[in-house]
Amino acid sequence: MHVSPMHEKSRVVWVHNFATHYTVGLFQLLSQRLPIEFLFFSCGGDRFWLRKNGTQRGAFPHEYLNGVRLFGTRLVPSLPYRLWRGNYSAIIKCVNGKFALPITYAIARLKRTPFILYTGIWMRVDSIAHRLAFPLIRHIYRKSDAILVYGEHVKRYLIGEGVQPDRIFVEPHCVDNSLYNRSVSNEEKDAVLQSLGVERGAKLILYLGRLEPVKGLQHLVSAFSLLADKDAVLVLAGTGSEAQRLKRMAFDLGLGSRTRFPGYIALVDTVPYYSVAWAFVLPSVTTRKDKETWGLVVNEAFNQGLPVIASDAVGAAAGGLIENGVNGFIVPEADPGALAHALTRILSNPPLRAAMSASARRKIAGWDQEHAAEVVENAIRFALTPGAC
After folding, report:
1. Which is the most buried residue in 20, 92, 221, 372, by most CB within 10 A?
2. Is residue 264 domain-shared with residue 293, that is, in the same domain?
3. 309: closest CA among 294, 331, 337?
């Protein structure tokens, strides 16, 4: 176990919505590096999370706090008590939680405890509630002792909101690569192909995730209808409010025989889907309330050497993981023509696809949770250093 001398007597608490299959590995690494515990205030009912994916527990000190939902806000009465009574040297808080965020920040300030914000937001949300709350959010941005962000795109946004650059720590937003870079057997691949009703060697264009408006999937269906390659197959895996609309759209465009909607894919079953695809597409768009903070499906796809085409409204594209023309393509959001052009380049050029595949594997190999844990520790060290804030 590695614990830097600075943290031997410094107990840290991280207040987070809940643990996911993405974050369990990071939280476990952090618990091995420094004295830290996690308080979770959500039961996984957040609107951006698919309930079927569930919440996680792991080998790190943590507790899920009981709460109730009132007018769309999760109230957790025990959270302020736990923070007030806890003898913490630093408090980390994710940007989520209309109740949890201001309460956590207020207690940190009242107790004069260093406060570290963790955020992936890179736009101002255009709703009445968020407009009213934004002065407080901007105050938290500017007064946090340190801020952990998903990528360079978030850092640029925060600098634009008046945050001092030296307080911003860019953490590589990542998955546990070992879960996604495993070798997939021919039997697993054949099972996926059989379930989709396609032959081995078919060029599958894959999307996997929530079928919601922010994902911009209507533009992907439109782009697919423009392709000259009529042998390609589009796979839209997942569930959501857009499912029926997308199915009708595909039927109306005459794509019924070349489009598959396999529904929800359990987390443990996603890797074989990546392994049989030719390219992955994440065509997200900006809405009044949403902008793709990252898109960890990109990390997952890269681990299987899958080139990714993403819009410029995707955090993984703006944040530096996707390199245009190297391991995929970045196209303007809501532009089916640009999507179709990028798809054509990959579909029609196997050597280019192979080169992008190799580049994707190289890139993601260094985009890992070990590095993320180091950045988190650096942010804590900065916040604890007298005179640094």
Report:
1. 92
2. yes
3. 331
